[in-house]
Specification:
globular; 22 strands; about 375 residues; 5-stranded antiparallel β-sheet; 6 helices; transmembrane; membrane; DUF4179; Immunoglobulin-like; DUF4179 domain-containing protein; transmembrane helix; alpha+beta
Length: about 375
């Protein structure tokens, strides 16, 4: 079978929101391997036995997929690429509320790490799929699944939960990585599986080095706050060029008025994962209370930015098409905000508006409400 036909089958499965395509993936991979070697290769995962889904087939476990990757990486690149595209399709589905990530994946960005880890204490199978990084952030894509532990309220929440992620380099230096926004999470009830796109500090400076990432503890959402399950999920790999992208920065320094306030667009950062508009304004400055404590209020511009935000129980933070907001237009196409990055802080007195990547950074316009249109050119 041709690779494009294989990928088309997987795409159809994911578009119908069928997250688990492993049975069909097993059959297709075995068929391709058979075409190459003149025989069919059957894979079994001896560590974690699985029940039969149908009498005629068995589910391919994540561990088995990892074994296949180890073999095929040296001998049959299309198989490796096909498995990566399966995972990319999960993270490109509507269940992930980060349009920037979805755009980057659709353009082929990211380094496939394809490693598995079994958390015995919590009976959770973890699969690290891929990683992307630039000067401002890193995306780590992973899934985790369990046969016995209900994962409905389990999350790797490094923004405000009990989880954290640390970087360990060759000189055994440990560095805690801060979150960049909330990240994105999707829970598949049928499969009891979580897809998580973690977003944290840039690791671009470690390109070409062997590094170790450690996820510590699982956040459990409870009615009265957060609980946790103790865990340590390690990932070791060499960060190569395929994970790394570069930002282009345009200094703008253009002012406009909105809501009786004055704002200045300082600069715009263009990357494969986002477009970041950096603004200062008469109501973006930090204030002090009577005790000298600093605080900030929501600016008029931020209120307009969030006006178009809609919280959907299935798809997370999405754009409400019936409401006005703040958008970009690039090459004639509307570019939506990434609301899951709404809490990313800028420098002192700055306000950041983060959108999906644009097609043409030299032809981009900021639209505030219905009437304000500002070309984002130098």
């Amino acid at each position: 079978m041709e690779k494009d036909q294989f990928i088309k089958h997987l795409n159809n499965a994911m578009e119908n929101q069928v997250p688990d395509v492993w049975d069909e993936l097993t059959r297709k991979i075995q068929h391709m391997e058979g075409e190459r070697n003149g025989k069919v290769v059957h894979l079994k995962d001896k560590r974690i036995p699985r029940t039969k889904k149908r009498n005629r087939s068995k589910r391919l476990s994540l561990a088995a997929a990892a074994c296949l990757l180890a073999i095929s990486a040296f001998s049959y690149t299309p198989v490796l690429a096909s498995i990566k595209e399966v995972y990319d399709k999960i993270f490109s589905s509507n269940h992930i509320d980060d349009t920037g990530l979805k755009t980057a994946l659709s353009s082929g960005q990211g380094q496939a790490v394809n490693q598995t880890f079994y958390d015995k204490a919590n009976d959770i199978n973890v699969h690290f799929e891929s990683i992307l990084t630039d000067e401002k952030e890193t995306k780590l894509l992973l899934t985790f699944q369990s046969k016995t532990t209900d994962l409905k309220n389990y999350n790797i929440d490094i923004f405000e939960g009990e989880s954290s992620i640390n970087l360990i380099t060759g000189d055994v230096q440990r560095k805690k990585l801060k979150s960049v926004g909330w990240g994105s999470r999707y829970y598949d009830r049928k499969e009891n599986k979580v897809a998580k796109a973690l977003s944290f500090d840039s690791i671009k400076e470690y390109k070409g080095q062997n590094i170790r990432l450690e996820i510590k503890d699982i956040t459990i959402y409870e009615e009265d706050g957060f609980g946790k399950a103790e865990a340590l999920w390690p990932l070791e790999f060499m960060l190569d060029q395929s994970a790394v992208s570069t930002r282009e920065t345009a200094e703008i320094n253009q002012s406009f008025s909105y809501g009786k306030q004055t704002y200045t667009i300082k600069k715009v950062e263009f990357s494969s994962m986002e477009t970041r508009v950096v603004v200062t304004g008469s109501d973006t400055k930090l204030l002090k209370d009577e005790n000298g404590m600093e605080y900030r209020i929501m600016s008029k511009l931020e209120q307009q930015f969030l006006h178009a935000r809609k919280i959907d129980k299935v798809y997370g933070y999405i754009v409400d098409p019936k409401k006005s907001g703040v958008f970009l237009k690039s090459a004639g196409e509307k570019v939506e905000p990434i609301f899951s990055k709404g809490e990313v802080a800028g420098e002192r007195d700055e306000y950041l508006m983060i959108f999906a990547p644009v097609k043409d950074c030299r032809n981009t316009i900021l639209e505030v409400g219905a009437n304000i249109k500002i070309p984002l050119t130098k």
